[in-house]
Write a structure and sequence with these properties.
single chain, 2 domains, alpha/beta, Rossmann fold, 460 residues, eight-stranded mixed sheet, elongated, six-stranded parallel sheet
């Protein structure tokens, strides 16, 4: 099967081919024809399955050939927003909009991405010029709606990407506000890595007689990923990680920590060991996050330390090593984490450093993935068999109970910086910066928010 047999135009197939893709993935082969038929869709697809092209390609096809799209003479002619993609994080938003731009380069459609943190005025100017496909995080989109700088009255297609993560991050109220701004008659596409009860409830309210596809077993792990557990005492995790990186000559290692503070501390420790590392999390400015991600992708940065939420949108085809420095308190996040390696037919390795505090988390993960992961004790790092478990600090002031949706202290507050950007249909990259911070009286919400009442500025 080829992309041309799925009903895509020569212009779109040409752009796809230029990116090195000739055959669609399973999610693309199923989703593209369904979206082109015009009905609603509920799609289950984990990271690395090609789901972004699964909705961007048919959207480009529909908009470029409909009554409006067929009359567009160029990318700068006035036009209304006809497709809206909502994503939970800025990295994912930038990645999706980049795909729209690359695949739509030979059409007359254009796109933009908006999320918080830099001044809103350049985005206002961009929206005034006219955009066909808008990719946004909910908080900044509602900012524009409040200032009446965005018109969503002509939306034909709505896409919720990584809907499970949006619900985890407390976006349900923002999503409802956005839905109220859209025309009632439209096509709705919902993509989610898992089909939880919350996702099913959202789908029941949002989708109209949807077709449903699921390309991977729920919560399945990729078979080409070699998974192993290294038992270790909590205070020996850092020296063990340094040992593994040096002993095995690892390059391009993605390391997950539970908290932002833990990520920063680990970067400093690795630096003292002569290992180049940078952190990516909600307290980092957009420019710092963009720089770290770019250097990691091109191989000049050896180790990238990330929290779960910040890692959304990291898309690297040949990432060889993922390390769970801390196990996630939400078992499904383990699947998301290790799914970032072993892509595109390549082999990958996922290593977890597990101390006595995390034994219950490990049991929960193994129950979810329905397998017992192999243990390997590293000589010189044998764990103390008499060590007692201690409560795990999941976020500031809240030890013990895993709080789904706000793992690792992901909520911003007290003027926490937010980052943002905007792109265009002519190859513009997201703007970067750490300006636009709000004080504790901010009335606006961003993608780092939880479901609790606002306590201060939020990371958009």
């Amino acid at each position: 099967m080829s992309f041309s047999t799925l009903g895509l135009s020569d212009a779109i197939v040409r752009a796809v081919t230029e990116q090195g893709y000739t055959n669609p993935t399973p999610i693309q082969a199923q989703a593209i024809p369904m979206v082109l038929n015009g009905g609603d869709l509920l799609a289950g697809a984990q990271t690395g399955t090609g789901k972004t092209a699964g909705f961007t390609l048919p959207i480009l096809q529909l908009l470029s050939t409909d009554k409006v799209g067929s009359t567009l003479k160029n990318k700068t002619a006035p036009r209304a927003i006809r497709a809206l993609v909502l994503t939970p994080t800025r990295e994912l938003a930038a990645q999706v909009e980049e795909s729209v731009r690359l695949y739509g380069k030979y059409t007359n459609l254009n796109s933009a991405v908006i999320f918080g943190g830099v001044g809103i005025n350049p985005q206002i100017k961009l929206l005034k010029q006219g955009v066909d496909i808008l990719v946004a995080t909910p908080g900044r989109l509602l900012d524009h709606a409040g200032q009446r700088t965005v018109d969503l009255s002509q939306i034909d297609i709505l896409i919720l990407d990584e809907a499970d993560r949006m619900l985890d991050m407390g976006f349900i109220h923002d999503i409802k506000k956005v839905l109220a701004l859209l025309p009632p008659k439209r096509q709705n596409l919902l993509f989610s890595a898992t089909f939880s009860d919350d996702i099913k409830a959202l789908a029941d309210k949002l989708l109209n007689n949807p077709q449903s596809i699921e390309v991977a077993r729920r919560n399945s792990t990729v078979e080409v990923i070699a998974q192993k557990i290294h038992p270790v005492d909590r205070d020996k995790k850092h020296p063990m990680l340094s040992h593994l990186i040096k002993e095995n000559n690892w390059h391009q290692v993605l390391v997950f920590t539970r908290t932002k503070h833990g990520a920063n501390k680990l970067v400093e420790q690795l630096g003292r060991d002569g290992i180049g590392a940078m952190a990516i999390h909600g307290n980092k400015s957009q420019s710092a996050r963009t720089k770290a991600l770019a250097e990691f992708k091109d191989g000049s940065l050896q180790v990238l330390v990330a929290t779960d939420i910040a890692a959304r949108g990291i898309d690297i085809d040949q990432l060889p090593h993922v390390v769970n420095y801390d196990l996630p308190n939400v078992p499904e996040d383990y699947v998301h984490r290790i799914g970032r390696t072993g892509r595109a037919g390549a082999t990958g390795e996922a290593v977890s450093l597990v101390c006595v505090d995390e034994h219950q988390m490990l049991k929960d993960i193994e129950k979810l993935i329905k397998q017992t992961l192999p243990r390997q004790v590293i000589p010189g790092f044998e764990p103390d068999p008499t060590a007692k478990a201690q409560p795990i600090q999941l976020r500031s002031g809240a030890p013990g109970h895993p709080n789904r949706g706000r793992p690792g202290g992901s909520r911003g507050g007290n003027g926490q910086p937010r980052a943002a950007g905007a792109g265009n249909g002519n190859g513009g990259r997201p703007a970067a910066g750490n300006g636009g911070n709000r004080n504790g009286n901010s009335a606006n919400r961003g993608p780092r928010s939880g479901s609790a009442p606002r306590q201060g500025g939020r990371d958009r």
